Amino acid sequence: MNFKPIFNKNKRPILIAGPCSAETEEQVLSTARNLRGFQDRGGLQVDLFRAGIWKPRTRPGAFEGVGVAGLPWLRRVKEETGLKVTTEVATGQHVYECLKYGVDVFWIGARTTVNPFSVQEIADAMAGTDIPVIVKNPVNPDYKLWVGAIERLHKAGLRRIAAIHRGFSTYGDSKYRNVPRWQMAIDLMQEFPDLELICDISHICGRRDILAETAQKAYDLNFDGLMVEVHPEPDKAWSDASQQITPARFAEMIGSLVQRHTTSDDPDFQEQIENFRQQIDELDEELIHLIAQRMRLVREIGYVKKDKNVAIFQPERWRALAEACRIRAEKGDLSHEFISMFLEAIHQEGINQQDRIMNDVLSPHV
Ligand code: PEP
Ligand code: MN
């Protein structure tokens, strides 16, 4: 697939900002005027103003957006501030309504990307237009589903397509509202180098206190831009109050992003890096060797279990082992998330290996 850029190629980071939801005309306009004000005073330039009109809410009863009533407000933002505007579309009807009001860019939300029927309906409604569209990752970490949604739009003839990484739903403890699983965004960058990739730090974090560090992380990972929810009075927001920030805080956060170089020619730097990399390579080799050794023991247990007809999964043993590893990992400064994922992968591989033994695919003592 080939893509055309939506944004100015010479300006990074691309900035998409605005409230989670359009609540009132005054709230929308005051946010937009504030954001535009930075540029007028020689400060940061917002590339696209966001505001949700139709809000996909997890539970019924929450604020579900003002609907078409908000579209004239977005048109006023354009007329008054010159900012380009974007909103979320989830159906063909949304597309038609937005086209009537001159919405500049559409975005497809995470809950829509998961549903190929909905994405196809949007693609069909957009076919023949040259409107740019930005595709959020699906709520679940399914790379193919994300690419599949982009493909549907591409097949409809659209070329000005970009992607938004907004993290993935999770169950259980996490410091994030939606865990980033950065590797998936990195994979997308590598597979489609000309696809602009924006990081929606607001929906990844779900809270204000870790927004800045997450923005820096996205910047360091070479994302093309950031999407940030900005509200004149964040605590009073009708949706996603805990993650929104004021325009002033937004400008301050963007102003403090540290630009890092991709590399350095300094010979000392090269030597130090080389030295560390060599040590890392040796450790990686040892790690693989240790894991292979561990799996050999797991297979031995498989034969013993098979002999006595004992079930593969032993929950008590697994709980105790995982707990002991977590305590050790904490002492070694490893995050809870990492160690959980690591243990899960090890456990799954062990189960697969024993399963093969129980089903006689492996001959004894390979
Ligand atoms: C949003 O951007 O307000 C939104 C609903 O996002 P997501 O689709 O990522 O949940
Ligand atoms: Mn939101």
SSE layout and pairing:
Elements: E1 14-18, H1 25-40, E2 48-50, H2 71-81, E3 85-88, H3 92-100, E4 105-108, H4 110-113, H5 116-126, E5 133-136, H6 143-155, E6 161-165, H7 182-191, E7 196-200, H8 201-205, H9 211-220, E8 225-229, H10 247-255, H11 267-308, H12 315-331, H13 336-358
Parallel strand pairs: 1-2, 1-8, 2-3, 3-4, 4-5, 5-6, 6-7, 7-8
Residues 20, 52, 56, 109-111, 136, 166, 200, 203 line the site of phosphoenolpyruvate.
What would you say this structure looks like, in words?
The chain folds into two domains: 14-256, Aldolase class I (TIM Barrel, Alpha-Beta Barrel); 267-358, Chorismate Mutase Domain, subunit A, CATH 1.20.59.10. The model has no long low-confidence stretch (mean pLDDT 94). The protein has helices spanning 25-40, 71-81, 92-100, 110-113, 116-126, 143-155, 182-191, 201-205, 211-220, 247-255, 267-308, 315-331, 336-358, and strands spanning 14-18, 48-50, 85-88, 105-108, 133-136, 161-165, 196-200, 225-229. With 366 residues, the protein is of the alpha/beta class. It has an eight-stranded parallel barrel, surrounded by six helices. Helix content is 49%, strand content 10%. The site of manganese (II) ion has 4 residues, from loops. Residues 20, 229, 239-240 line the site of manganese (II) ion.
